[in-house]
Specification:
Keywords: Carbohydrate metabolism, Glycoprotein, Glycosidase, Hydrolase, Polysaccharide degradation, Signal. It is an enzyme of class 3 (hydrolase). This protein folds into 3 domains: 382 residues, Glycoside hydrolase, family 3, N-terminal domain (TIM Barrel, Alpha-Beta Barrel); 196 residues, Glycoside hydrolase family 3 C-terminal domain (Rossmann fold, 3-Layer(aba) Sandwich); 124 residues, Immunoglobulin-like (Sandwich). The chain is α/β, with parallel strands linked by helices and 781 residues long. The protein starts with a strand and ends with a strand.
Length: 781
Amino acid sequence: MAARLLPILLGVTFCINVNANYTDPSLGPGQRSQDLLQRLTWEEKIGQMGGIRAAFTSVNGTVRFNRSAFEEIRLKENGQIGYGRQANWAAELLPIMNRLRMEQINSSRLHIPYIIIADSVNGLWFSGGTLFPGTSSMASSWNLPLYEQVIQASRDENMAMGINWVLSPEVDIVKDPRNGRNGEMYGEDSYLVGEFATKYIKTMQEKDERGFYKVATTIKHFVFGTGSGGINRASMAGGLNHILNDLAPPYQKAIKEAQPLSLMASYSAVDGVPMSVNKYLLQNVLQDILGFKGLIMSDANAIELLLNTHKVASSRKDAARKALSAGLKHELKPGGGGLFTELSSMSGDKDVVALVDASVRAFLEIKFATGMFDLPLPTIENMQSTLRNPRHLEINKNITRESIVMLKNDDEFLPRTKSNISATGKIAVVGPYADVINAGNYAPVVLYDPRYGDSFLSSFQKVLGKDNILHAQGTSKILPNYDDDAQQQDEAAIAAAVEKVKEAGLAVVILGSGLGNFMPNTINNDRTDTEGWSHPDLGFPGAQQQLLDAVLDTGVPTILVMSSGQTFPLPNSTFNRCRAIFHSWLAGEYTGSSFVEIFLGETNPSGKLTVTIPEHNGAFPVNYDFLPSDAGGGFGTSLAYDWHWPQLTRKAPLAFGFGLSYTTFSVSSVNVSVSTNAASSNQSVAIQATVSNVGNVSGKEVLQVYFRANYSIIERPVMKLIRFEKLEVDPAEKKIINFDIPIDELGYFVTGDWVVERGNYAFWVGTSSRYEDLRRVELVI
């Protein structure tokens, strides 16, 4: 083969005077990566196994680039690169990143480009893009087609910044309400999580007209979610059936239907074995049983934790070799100094050489599959026309409107109209979360940034006029205060808020937890709900409950809005006295304005809980899909009761799937039968139901289907979600909904084998997981 010009980036070409199949875009990623692998030196291979995760820092909002530190890392770790600090703005970052990418191509012996990697939860990791709500918020919409539009917009904005590999989606299951990362997750149900995750991956990894994946995804964290005490890096217990049936179903679905190109192992030690060295779970389970064939990477600094936290490695070299042998193929080490660089001294070890070759080949395949060797660098013009364009902002408004969940509306207190607001007087908007955008720690720094949307307070002021809105923060700080001065400040702040409420005819109290992100600043020190934080107390942090009690004591009609990624128990004294209650979850830039639309009846709320809200601070686990024995009573008379006798019920009222509307829906004519495909002889369960709007306004309802086999080989949950659909129904309108469920989907794992029961099944169809919202039908399969 003759020498070939390598067409790469901005029209620059390099002449490769070798038989270079890797430069031929007509060949597949596998062929190209294998060819390039054979041309790499040992040191070049090791360099591809890490990268420079944080190329830029930020000082007072200004981009800072440390050339000497950058070059020190690049010398040994040069496979991928990341933008770094969230406070930096896209317009400043892109020109610098383009120069760094060109430098890498010019200086690399074989002109191997970086691939840019970033988290993508609320959209762009750094500032300047469309700020969508957090994962917990968008899942509360239960609207998969609308979520697809969100991910399309997010994907296009990432691509406009040259990001072709994201560290998302997170498919961990919300099992412990104390976990500070629950806001990053879709919810407590494995089926719902799998549906959203698969939609994310398919949409991000959609191919362009040349056949390149637009953005590679990283499904994570395998496995995670039940760490001791709700602590992020804590150990997990659990046998194979628990892992495969409770934690792994989203992976099973996504791997089968969407094929994520990479996967991130979790920090946790499972059954005493840290996941970074858990060969059984990463190979026997993940690859052999679940069928994952892509690249497995470490979480940030996870290989180093084997040495200094887990204490299962005796040296950096030992940790690197053990992680490589277990199945890790790429290392994330944001600060540089990755432990995979220690492999450079093991070129004489045949086992290590084979594993390194397999790792580098898998990584290069992602680069080739995403067009890194063939596509031009992103342009400033495309960035300007893509980021925050009108279509993306409208999609953002739509998903936000459907993500807010109404939990109570006493005697149809809402919606209000401007006329009845005028009659009752001013509105007091109070609370420490009233005038911030609480977007979560994977979002840019937007708490008070006017370049993004409006807070709850400013949204009320814009719509109803500043003169009609009274405001007080109500507490001095977010975090609990223990010294006398802080307590006195809180008491004074609460007293000032109460005076505002008494002056008004209506109070809107916005409480929550969170604030800040990974930026080291003063706001960061007030974080109470996010990665690295857990909740020994599920109540509102600081003096917020005292503030709410004081407002309720005034007798002024009060609406409570909760802003966070966590759930808060609502004692009877709170729940019964609030006229309306909402959870807005982690905010986007339109959460405040969307809430005001709901408040005024311009938008009918349609969000549904994807997690169950505990009735009490210690009443968990609280998931709706518990095992029958988890609700067992005690002895004697207590057998008449179930969970936490006699105070609570096992199925909490604010349950998974629950959410109110300004209209009323009815589910009727539920029919279930077995159908057989004439061509394949495969059997399915056919379910039909009628949804009617018996209220006075149009609204959106989520029809949900749950099931359970009456008897099973191993103990199975009391019910499991298996289908849902969100639909809009006008007043007096009826819609017939059909679901087709292949019988194979009714199965579960028993010690690694997939089992589908034959016999009696129960199916429930309705509007939440609460029995009172469901209609039960039986079927023999």
